[in-house]
Amino acid sequence: MDFFVFVDLIGTIAFAISGVLTATKKRMDVFGIIIIAFVTSIGGGTLRDLLVGFPVAWIRNTYYVYFIIGCTILAILFRRKLRHVRTSLFLFDTIGIGLYTVVGIEKGLSADLSPVICVALGTVTATFGGVIRDILCNEIPVVFRKEIYATACILGGVSYFVLLFLTPIPEGIIFVIAGSIVITFRLLAVHYKWILPTIYSKEELENLN
Amino acid sequence: MDFFVFVDLIGTIAFAISGVLTATKKRMDVFGIIIIAFVTSIGGGTLRDLLVGFPVAWIRNTYYVYFIIGCTILAILFRRKLRHVRTSLFLFDTIGIGLYTVVGIEKGLSADLSPVICVALGTVTATFGGVIRDILCNEIPVVFRKEIYATACILGGVSYFVLLFLTPIPEGIIFVIAGSIVITFRLLAVHYKWILPTIYSKEELENLN
Amino acid sequence: MDFFVFVDLIGTIAFAISGVLTATKKRMDVFGIIIIAFVTSIGGGTLRDLLVGFPVAWIRNTYYVYFIIGCTILAILFRRKLRHVRTSLFLFDTIGIGLYTVVGIEKGLSADLSPVICVALGTVTATFGGVIRDILCNEIPVVFRKEIYATACILGGVSYFVLLFLTPIPEGIIFVIAGSIVITFRLLAVHYKWILPTIYSKEELENLN
């Protein structure tokens, strides 16, 4: 199996699980859960494909749809195993953005787009599904929150191109490194409560108008 | 006139009225009402066309736009007749999702898509306009609520394919049956306060975390 | 340089600044600000291009992306000069919708679309970026508010076609007039607290149900 198809599938599983966890937290019914899991999994890739002008993958590829429904049902059945919902949700969401950033960059490269656009597409692919999930579940969307989120995707995407242009590391390995940077950076950032150096003066921070 | 063009027009009228009712409830000005009615009518079909790769119908078909504006103005003038806004809104929205589910399935079939995708497109066509209407009017989106909504569309869509594959009933009649199932099921579900069998244990329902 | 490319760039600057002002008001970090500025600038044009079936401009045009990032960084550095954030935000947003209305109409004409659709596309181009900006920044979206907003775009768009069909004024000048009408009308409307003549009876206004 193609490496990127594999990465895409694992990312799909991670986001489907994150969708199930968010929807069951809201005590949605079983169809609601399937819809949220589906939208979380395919939201980012769908927007990316529309922007680039690719045909939307899941429309023609029924296996993809059955795969998501299957993952969702398994995740519903075994959701008790994921006892600490908050931690599990954070973990699967983080794995999802790491893998989807890489998938988005690769899709951009396959359409001969420039590095800055590829990084943007990686970020869109990674973050948009989670944003829709949160809006539909009436949660504060993850990008609004103070946490490092899209920043991790941008950092991973930039690392990809820096390593590609400045080192002799083979491309396949660079993809693995870039995805790992996204995941590791977000895990560390949330664990150690990292925030970016502030651009605001003390005075500005005191006067939230 | 083509059967599906007819169904589409009736669905458009129903959703335009539901948009007018929601917007006048918020005391929007006349341009605001027209925009909300328009978005409610064309939102679902537009997303469906973008996903499948069809050209967006209303962009090239000016009659469609004038038709919606005309319906909207009539609905504004005669809104007093719809005294019980809450009931009327529910009714027109329900007729809308029934008809648009059928329109979405037919569009999917016309692009040779598989049954599961056709059901998904029917559901998207039926529900997305109402979701945008509610977000723009600052109402809780209808899909968030506990009511049976998307579930009725999925049930109607699945019924269509079950009847198509397992019975000798002609396709045109099956479409009528499928649309009626969506409408009847939602009417009954809301009237009798049906909910789907819960997947949650008693313990989970007590601990909404 | 082509006249419309110039108008588009000025509109882009105005919306990028409005994005920076909204995001810094929320004390977002520097990546967050860049993402909001970018989305505000390209949101409306992107939706318009998807609806018409044009390729999305910024995907293939890297200069556009660097231009927005450059404007954003300048706007961040000089944000102190824009002391009265509320007034500045209103001003740049208003310039943005005026210019983008004109750009949207011109794009519609270039695809041989009818006047009513061109006006709709002008309004979409002008308003959608600001709507996304407000949703992502957790502000009440500007179109929900009581202010004249989309109405100014529709009025400017209709004026364009009235002048084109009924007067001998050259097209280039009509574009300038139409954009000025949008900007002037909104400035005056907000300054003098204009509202459209109400369609509601006294009784209806008292009974907000």
From TrEMBL, chains A, B, C:
- Keywords on this record? Cell membrane, Membrane, Transmembrane, Transmembrane helix
Main subcellular location:
membrane
Q: Give an example GO cellular component term for this record.
A: plasma membrane
Query: Locate the Glycine transporter domain: which residues?
Result: 6-79, 91-163
Q: Where in the cell is it found?
A: Cell membrane
Residues crossing the lipid bilayer are 6-23, 30-51, 63-78, 90-107, 113-136, 148-166, 172-192
Q: Does the keyword DNA damage apply?
A: no
Q: Which residues form a coiled coil?
A: none
Q: Which InterPro entries match?
A: Gly_transporter
Look up and give the membrane topology term: Multi-pass membrane protein
Q: Which family does it belong to?
A: Belongs to the UPF0126 family.
Q: What protein name is recorded for this chain?
A: Membrane protein
Which organism is this protein's natural source?
Answer: Croceibacter atlanticus (strain ATCC BAA-628 / JCM 21780 / CIP 108009 / IAM 15332 / KCTC 12090 / HTCC2559)
